[in-house]
Structures are given as structure tokens and as C-alpha cells.
């Protein structure tokens, strides 16, 4: 009972928010001042980004603000990272856009709500570590794919094209752009290009300045003073509300849940991956360690909370988290202040924010897409192993041409298949030559593991060795061994000291081989089997079939 209680306490330790930890350690006025400055600054930076991500996702800009306020506050309050900043991100733009096109905002709300529940379950099941194991070519492929998709989705506002509705498909988008090229608005293009150039110049020359904020302010003032006839937030969406909406539970039906469930899985996985990546970046900059499972649970509650207030999916934001750290944040209080700052800005500056030209926001999203593209990593993987390049290109193309849900599923599955192929190729079942065993006795040098050194091996004894995991991918190799032998041996010794694991199919193959040896009247012996592998043998009573007296610690004992 005491052991059970201690295990439960250790389990709960993994879910204590860092906000609680920081206050337990002592929270000084000096720390608060640093958090206040950082949180307020990041709140200002987050304002245009939240609106841009919402508009790029085909939802009103206020939904992005609601998300940044509610989800941002909850991620900081409940999360497992000291300095994580949460909110809408560029990674979700294409996913949200696709769900909105298929099911409307009600469908998105249901998908986000389910995704929140899935994230909580993943956290409670301690899947935080597992999400980090998604292959790097998959994450790079879909991240670059998302960047390309974001870029292509902003062409309309960047050039001021007159289009009734933007298609969902990548090829359809560019087809419509071609048909609408004659409607290009020169002033919209001028404002967008000027905003984009100003962002890059400020980032290059004055990296500590909030380049995005300055560029948007300049673009907005120029548009307003000159009276340019281009679309703004106000002209397209009718302004921004000054207060949060009343919380409401999303309406959902069983059919709707079934329809959006694949998208909910994608949202949950992407939110988890992005949050943990952001937390890992923060760890590298601060020297602290985050609690990954706690971060997943917090992300789940944040997405559920976002839906209650009319928001969209949220996750940890790497760029805003990095800015938070550079501005001097030390605790989650900075993230909560960032959310409060956003709420105050919405209250005080909503009429001014409504004047922002859509062309400037399109430029911001193109800048975000450029930062997301990871072209160096993309081309680096292309130059590496062929199998990884195949996974990368497949995931990238599926993200751009189909959707992220299919891309992640196919990318992970393809990675698993290629990994199994590598494992299969690395596992061998081969005969050992007469004249073994420096490795087992730790002799000075081993030049050929196939050779049995200084052993007296009788002519009617055959020694084979398995190297690598013994699983379903190579189970047929063992079945072919007896067929390949020129003559039937009296004793067959199988060396297994280089077998780290065995699966159910491997156990069945071993059982068939043992029965075949019994039918042929061959004595079957195993030497050097590892403890974990032997434990698997015992679970299926394979040790009884082979006989306890036929298991030997090394080749010396097996040859006697």
C-alpha cells in the first residue's frame, strides 16, 4: 500500500504546474518587474499576430484575440514550462482554414474541443516523451508544407485580388489567382511589399525592436493618411469587439463528432508537438526543464477554454516564447500578463486595430511562412539518406496538395515501414565458422564474429548466430536455416547474445524451429540468451518446449 501511495505521489508530481513551483520557490518583486515588462511587450507583439492568424484561417480577427487571451492565460497558469507563451500560431492556419471550409466554425469548435480532451488524455497517459519521437523528416516536411500553404493563401490580400471565395486546394488557389490577376490592386501590393521589406530590414539592422509591430503601424498610418482604397479589418469584418464574449458550450451531434474526429486528432498532435518543441527551445535558452505531460494537459484545457469563448486552436508559440525570454521573463506570470495585456489592448485599441490593412497582415503571414519554412533543414535532409528524403518529400507534398491529416499519417507510417526495413536488413542469421568466442570472454580483439576461436566443434554440431532484433520482419530467416544445411546435424546451437529483443512473431518462428528440430531428431541448444529475451520465452513456455537443460550461458557450455 505504501509503495502504491508513493507511486501515485510521483505520478502527480509530473502534473504540478510551473506556476505553483515558482511561487513555492519564492516570488520576489524584482522577478515580478521582469515578468511585467516581458509580458507586456509580448502582449503587444501578439496583438497583430493573433489577428493575422485568425484572418489567414478564414475566421474573424477577434477569434484570434480571444484565443490568445484565454488559451495564453491557461497555458501559462497550468503549463509545465516557466516561460511558455501560448496562443494561435501559423502551424494551425491551414488546418483551421480547411476545417472551416468543410464544416464551418461550429465544426471547428467541436474538433478543437475534442482535440483538447485528447491532449489531456495524452498527458495523463504520459505520452509527452512519445510525441518527441515523431521522425524529424515528418515534422520538417509538414512544417515546410504548412509554410508553403500559408504563403500561397496570402497571395489574394498581398496583391489585393478581387475574388469572391478562396478555394481550399493548393492547385485550385493558384488557378484562381491566374484568372484574377487582372484585378490586382497596385496600392495593396505597394503597402504589402513595403510592410514586408520593413520587417526584414528592421530584423536585420535592429533585431531587438518589435519589427512586426512597427511595420504594421507604419502601414496602417500610411493607408489611413493617404486614404488608400484598400481592404482593412474594418471594411471586411466590421470592426473588433472590445470585450470577451460570454462563455458557451459548443453544440455538437454524434455525426458531427464522427466527421471532425480525424481533424481533431491532427489538431491534438500538432498542438502537442508544437508546444513541446517550444518548451524544449525555452529549456535550451533558460537552463530549466519543462514537464512535458503537464504541458500537454495544460494545452488540452487551453483549447477547451478557447472554444468556450469563441476561439480557435492554440499551442505554444516558439517566436513569442523566445521573445518572452529575451525580454527578461522568469516565471509563468509573464505569460499571464501577456494575456491580460492583450485584453487591455482589445478594450482600449479595438477601433484603431480595425484600421489595419489586410495587405499588411498578409505581409506578416508571409514573413511567418518564411520563418517556418526551415529550408536549410529541408535541403539538408534531402542530401542525407534516401529513405529520409523520401519521407520528407512525401510528407511535404501531401501537406501542400492534400492536407496535414493525411500527410502526418502517411509520413509516420512510411517512416515506420522504412525503419522496419532497416532493422530487417541489419538482422542476420548466419553460420559460424569452425575455429568462438572472444567477445563473450572479453578477449583482447575480435576480428571476425563468425569465427569460433580455439573451440573444439565436432563435425556433427552446427553453430548459427542471430545478430540484431528478432522480430516479424526477419522471422522467415530462421525457418530457412535447416533447409540450407548440406546435411542434418546431431546438435544445432543458436547463439543469441546479440539479440536485444524478440516480438510475438519471432517467438512463433522460434517455436516452429524448435518443433522442426524435434521432428528431425536434432538437439536444439541456445547459448548466451539475454535476460529480457529469456523472459519473453518463458511467457509463452518456449523454455519448456526447448528444455531448460538446453539453455547455456555461453558457447563453451553449449559445446560440452
Describe this structure in words.
The chain has about 550 residues and is mainly alpha-helical. About 5% of the residues have low confidence. The protein is elongated, with a radius of gyration of 30 Å. About 65% of the residues lie in helices and about 5% in strands. Helix 19 runs antiparallel to helix 20. It folds into two domains: about 400 residues, no CATH class; about 120 residues, STAS domain (Transcription Regulator spoIIAA). The strands form two sheets. A five-stranded mixed beta sheet has the order 3-4-5-6-7. A two-stranded antiparallel sheet has the order 1-2. The two termini are about 50 Å apart.
How many E-type strands? 7
From the N-terminal CA to the C-terminal CA, the straight-line distance is 49 Å
Radius of gyration based on Cα positions: 30 Å
**Spatial shape:** elongated
Average of per-residue pLDDT values = 87
Task: Return the domain count.
Answer: 2
User: How many helical elements?
Assistant: 26
Amount of beta strand: 5-15%
Structural class: mainly alpha
Largest sheet: 5 strands, mixed
Helix content: 55-70%
Low-confidence parts: 435-451
List the strand order in the largest sheet: 3-4-5-6-7
